[in-house]
Amino acid sequence: MGTACAQYPFEVTAGFQEKCRVLHPKTKLSRCNFPPRVECSRLRLYPWSSSTTSSGGYVGQICSLPDFGDWFWDRIPTPMLDMVENPMHLKNLTPKELKQLADEIRLELFCMMSKFQKPFKASLAVVELTVAIHHIFHAPMDKILWDVGEVTYVHKILTGRRALMHTLREKDGLSGFTSRSESEYDPFGSGHGCSSISAGLGMAVARDLKGKRERIVTVIGNGSTMAGQVYEAMGNAGYLDSNMVVILNDSRHSLHPKLEDGQITPINALSSTLTKLQSSKSFRKFREAAKGVTKRIGKGMHELAAKVDEYARGMVGPLGSTLFEELGLYYIGPVDGHNIEELISVLQGVASLDPTGPVLVHVITTEYQGVEASQKRVISNGHLEGFYTSELSPNPLPRMYSDCFVEALVNEAVKDKDIVVVHAGMGMEPPLQLFQEKFPDKFFDVGMAEQHAVTFSAGLSCGGLKPFCIIPSTFLQRAYDQVVHDVDRQRIPVRFAITSAGLVGSDGPTRCGAFDITFMSCLPNMIVMAPSDEDELIHMVATAAHVDDRPICFRYPRGATAGMNSVGNGIPIEIGKGRVLIEGKDVALLGYGVMVQNCLKAWSLLSKLGIRVTVADARFCKPLDIQLVRELCENHSFLITVEEGSVGGFGSHVAQFIALDGKLDGRIKWRPIALPDSYIEQASPEEQLALAGLTGHHIAATVLSLLGRNREALLLMQ
């Protein structure tokens, strides 16, 4: 198949012919003579030739652990899947063979989900759909775009990355999202949802202007239909009349925003027949011919015929389907997303159509489809050992920051009847269900509608309520204009709880909350604070509840707490007031947020070397505790600010003040420690902190270097 050579001790460089893009699962890496203590190797994939055709395009770089363990050697047989190395191998398979392939993929996903505790639930719903897409369309020439990463794992398996699926979301492993640098089959990166139609439309217009003929397919989910960008893109696609296929993966069986209020979309023989008719080439040709005739007749006949067509198809379609027609997309559906033959029939009809503008195919899928059958097969084959029947680990989870936040918020809501919660973003943290259960009328989950969430919260505040607007850091970026104009400029007291702040481990740079300190602290009226531990978080919830004259925000990270004994009720903190935790000399460590904990770890390391440093908790980025900063500058030779945020955040505010205050003209020397000016790729939280230089060891080494003890700094980092 190809050649491989070991470049001891660091990497394997492999060249492959034709379309094979990864080492075959049964490649014996032991022949490469890896050193016994090597931790990982880097697998670089290069095209066999310089041709830019689909048979030899640049693939990028994928990193893999050299030891696959016993995953591929001791697993349930999957003979059909073993023959598929890329989508070309699906083209000649019969519907029966494609069904077998789908069953084997679902079985493998289930085993991976159970054995490696990977989040494959969403991908289980789109197995048949993904198989059908790759059977009909010709990736990578045809562009297939996905809205979120969780549904792309079948796509990754079918596009040459199966052997590396066990490295998913791990350091130097496969991305949890589609990635342009990972594979030529990923034309656009997915992550935040609602972007695939916009990107696909751009590719369609570029295709038309360049005179090319590739097809553009975008797959969106229920969550994306809550985001305004989706409808902006659909409206523009309808206006431009660009040829593209939008597939709506409806795993909730309803187009209604709230499932409990919506009508369940039925799949029956009549709907299947009508769907096949709508997607058929002959029907579309007849429809286009009828349009032409009515246009020539004139006198409003074309508009009347269009209304009749829309109403007639709206009567047989599910509730809400006419919305897509109004936006200019030709609606086809609903389609049974687990019926291979029906999917192939519909997609084949769509793919064979002459250029007729954008089409939306409504596909009904079911999460956890086939899980019970897969579980029975695992048990019957004697592979139960080491497997769990749930995505969740059987071990008890540690106490999380989100647990503390919600408990504190519930306590405040019990005392203050005006407190309400607005939540936005992809998915909802489980602890928020506690507030939702206790106060169902005061909890509003708007989904991926962050812009609406911010302005909605501003309106609630103007109406006399006290809204807590809970949005993950990376999703708050989408609503920044509303934060500026609808909240801060008007000095409206909205309380922003910014979740998933800082590094987020396996979600990598896609959902990293690196920028909120910077973009929130530059707003003139915003109070910006961050807790150093769970006790401080509880106090900051109380502080936010009591501030009623301007907006305020606080951030907290994803993950486990610092292990403090949480206080019961929060006590409001004086605005702009930090605190000194440990008194020392020569060097002052001024931490912001949870980085205070790493400052304390650095203090512990330095204490063993006889070095006593001061550790302070800033608490507030804005307003800054200028008295605390002055005292630290006057009593120390070095001031080090530490934050888990981008350049331009807390450290920049400190530097601005001490420069204007003249402190930098004296003996104080200032050094910032922040996230580097680059994206930190996926890894464990500990590995990401090490890559960013934010561990206690890195902070301690910085102190030693400033004191001229460079040798000890190097030894500490070993």
Keywords:
alpha/beta; five-stranded parallel beta sheet; 718 residues; seven-stranded mixed beta sheet
Description:
The protein is an alpha/beta fold and 718 residues long. It is built from 26 helices and 21 strands. It has a seven-stranded mixed β-sheet with strand order 11-10-12-13-15-14-19, with helices on both faces. A five-stranded parallel β-sheet has the order 5-6-7-9-8, with helices on both faces. Mean pLDDT is 82; it is low at 1-68 and 384-393.
List the helices and strands and how they pair.
Blueprint (H helix, E strand, L loop, with lengths): L1 E6 L3 E6 L24 E6 L14 E4 L14 H4 L12 H22 L4 H4 L2 H10 L6 E4 L6 H9 L34 H15 L5 E6 L6 H13 L4 E6 L18 H11 L1 H17 L3 H16 L5 H5 L3 E7 L3 H12 L7 E6 L6 H10 L20 H15 L3 E5 L8 H7 L4 E3 L4 H13 L3 E7 H4 L3 H9 L6 E7 L14 H6 L5 E3 L4 H13 L5 E6 L21 E4 L3 E6 L3 H13 L6 E4 L2 E3 L3 H10 E7 L7 H11 L8 E5 L11 H8 L3 H11 L3 H8 L1
Helix pairs in contact: 2-4, 2-13, 4-12, 6-7, 8-12, 9-10, 14-15, 14-20, 16-18, 21-25, 25-26
Q: How is the quaternary structure best described?
A: single chain
Sheet with the most strands?
A: 7 strands, mixed
Radius of gyration: 28 Å
Beta-strand portion reads 15-25%
Tally of separate helices: 26
Q: What is the tally of beta strands?
A: 21
Termini separation: 41 Å
Strand order, main sheet: write it out: 11-10-12-13-15-14-19
Broad structural category: alpha/beta
